[in-house]
Specification:
13 strands, Rossmann fold, 40% helix, 356 residues, single chain
């Protein structure tokens, strides 16, 4: 059986860690992980579950020392495949694998910085691998503009295990008690990195227009203090809870009553997790739901600042009409099933064996 070394450079709490966890769970190949960033709670849980996780901290895209250490690790471990996740991991993992004599090198890109410097740098390293996986058609298009040939590109979406998000009233009660949320209080929620592109500031402004509701933000990031200041300016400090990063979103989704994804720079996976947990969801963009009519999932109207508070008030009213009841779990079909995604990645490993 092939041995795979996964190289990841995600920040703690980044959704890429969850994607790697799901991939390793469903891959038949034996996997080990090396992280170039301090490991987050997901990688810690992966280690606790028996997966070997190496720490090789590196903060630079060009780091000859890290490349040398990665080369030694890849050679010593006798790995058949090196699979890199994210830009910095690819920048260091590809040359390290090539120097170690690993024949199969695969990269997954979850988001890319569209700049001339990045394009030139990426194209130079891309030649040291066999295939790059883009998690969306938009990322694949950007990589093509960078000069990555079609025959070295594959589009495989992010994966999701619906069973992990099943609603449990016991989990809900425990989470709300820990967060000190009074019974019967409508909870509007958002999950993700607290960064400007996620537009959680619009949620803080909107919650003030939804009587009786509170806002629960889950995640960490550079905008945390700015969002706290905004809550004070808007006079809703006592109605905004910052839960910080969590190992898994299920507990927080169970605690919520309405889910919102206001950012436009997103894959939409958080929306799929929310509807799998039985939540109504308002979103600015969610490519997996394009062209689909899913009960309780509504796209926010672009360029209409009232769309969000109006939608939230409507959902809180619907919640009252349901007497707090949950919606049924819904999905976007099996295209995003974690098992199917892992099977596609495993097939790429086998395919690159013939081209190495």
């Amino acid at each position: 059986m092939a041995r795979v070394l996964h190289v990841i450079s995600a920040r703690a709490g980044d959704g890429t860690e969850h994607q790697l966890r799901l991939l390793i769970r469903h891959l038949p190949q034996e996997s080990e992980v090396v992280t170039l960033s301090p490991p987050g709670p997901v990688l810690d849980a992966l280690r606790a579950g028996g997966t070997t996780v190496h720490q090789l901290i590196s903060n630079r895209d060009v780091d000859p020392g890290a490349i040398r250490r990665l080369r030694r690790l890849a050679r010593r471990g006798g790995f058949d495949v090196v699979h890199t996740h994210l830009f910095r991991a690819s920048a260091q993992g590809r040359p390290a694998a090539w120097l170690a004599g690993v024949a199969r090198v695969v990269a997954t890109e979850y988001h890319v910085d569209d700049s001339r410097h990045s394009a030139l740098f990426y194209r130079a390293g891309e030649r040291l691998g066999q295939v790059t996986i883009a998690v969306s058609a938009a990322i694949a298009d950007r990589l093509r503009r960078w000069g990555v040939p079609d025959e070295r590109l594959a589009v495989v979406p992010k994966g999701l295990d619906l069973t992990e998000f099943r609603f449990d009233p016991t989990v809900r009660a425990a989470a709300r008690a820990r967060l000190q949320i009074a019974p019967g209080t409508p909870v509007i929620g958002g999950i993700g990195r607290l960064e400007p592109g996620k537009r959680f500031d619009t949620l803080i402004r909107a919650v003030g227009e939804v009587p009786g509701a509170i806002l629960l933000l889950v995640g960490t990031g550079s905008s945390r203090h700015a969002l706290e200041r905004l809550a004070a300016i808007e006079g809703v400090t006592d109605r905004v809870l910052f839960a910080g990063p969590v190992r898994h979103a299920r507990e927080m989704l169970c605690a919520m009553d309405v889910f919102v994804s206001p950012g436009r720079e997103t894959s939409g996976l958080a929306v799929l997790e929310a509807i799998a947990a039985g939540l109504p969801a308002l979103y600015a963009t969610c490519a997996p739901l394009d062209g689909m009519d899913v009960d309780g999932a509504r796209r926010l109207t672009a360029h209409d600042p009232e769309s969000l508070p109006r939608g939230l008030r409507a959902e809180v009213l619907c919640l009252a009409e349901r007497s707090g009841g949950r919606l049924a779990a819904r999905s976007a079909g099996d295209r995003y099933d974690a098992g199917r995604v892992a099977a596609e990645v495993g097939e790429l490993y086998e395919r690159t064996a013939g081209s190495a």
